[in-house]
């Protein structure tokens, strides 16, 4: 084993690529219950915005605890997420309790958003609830048992 290069303290942010910033932003506002901390989605039709890092490529960033979750709207319209290619498999958001997962399932039902079952992962020590975002990115809500 080689010498450790860095000792991370956590993740600063995760950003996913989306096809339609307005659709994705609305979904994540509803899912996370918060507005973006930074939002350039109103500029999405401006020339060069999808190449402008300082304006988040026309995307948005949501606060999630002490981390950030971003949307980068540069994928071609109609493209769908594929967890079986190199890159992201899924994003998992921690919630406070298993009861929070059941409450989330009820709220997803009320909003007409399809989702999986609240599932106990056994020896992994967690319980999860899966839901797909508008680009079919697999999201997991997870609570420790």
Automatic annotation (TrEMBL):
InterPro entries: Glyas_Bleomycin-R_OHBP_Dase, Glyas_Fos-R_dOase_dom, MMCE/EMCE_epimerase, VOC_core. Gene3D superfamilies: 2,3-Dihydroxybiphenyl 1,2-Dioxygenase, domain 1. It comes from the Bacteria. The keyword Transcription does not apply. Residues 10-144 form the VOC domain. Keywords: Metal-binding. The keyword Cytoplasm does not apply. Transmembrane segments: none annotated. This is Glyoxalase.
């Amino acid at each position: 084993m080689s010498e450790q290069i860095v000792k991370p303290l956590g993740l600063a942010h995760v950003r996913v690529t989306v096809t339609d910033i307005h659709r994705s932003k609305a979904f994540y506002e509803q899912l996370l219950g918060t507005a973006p901390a930074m939002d350039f989605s109103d500029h999405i039709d401006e020339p060069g915005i999808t190449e402008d890092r300082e304006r988040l490529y026309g995307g948005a960033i949501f606060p999630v605890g002490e981390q950030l979750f971003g949307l980068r709207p540069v994928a071609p319209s109609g493209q769908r997420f594929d967890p079986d290619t190199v890159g992201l498999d899924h994003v998992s958001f921690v919630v406070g309790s298993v009861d929070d997962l059941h409450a989330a399932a009820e709220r997803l039902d009320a909003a007409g958003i399809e989702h999986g079952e609240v599932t106990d992962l056994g020896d992994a020590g967690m319980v999860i609830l899966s839901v797909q975002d508008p680009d079919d990115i697999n999201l997991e809500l997870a609570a420790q048992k």
